[in-house]
Amino acid sequence: MLHGFQPGRAVAGLAALAATLLFAGDAAGSWSTPWFVVFPVVFGGLALAAGAGLTHYTLRRRLAMSASREGAAAPASTSGSQAIR
Length: 85
What we know:
The structure is a single chain. This protein has helices spanning 7-28, 38-70. By secondary structure, it is mostly helical. The mean pLDDT is 87.
């Protein structure tokens, strides 16, 4: 099943990937990462993901509402010449 782009999930995934890369570099000995760094990285990423998701939802909803208002006018022919039999 094909889904639309969801920026909140993308941001959350990038935050988890960043935390993974930080600790993978620490495990490989490339640098030293304190254990508590994971909290601001992951929770900050989740906060950014929530903001991105809310913004995307709000914009999508506004576009849907404006599109539904455009189609609310009377039909082209109301005389009954195109009545369903």
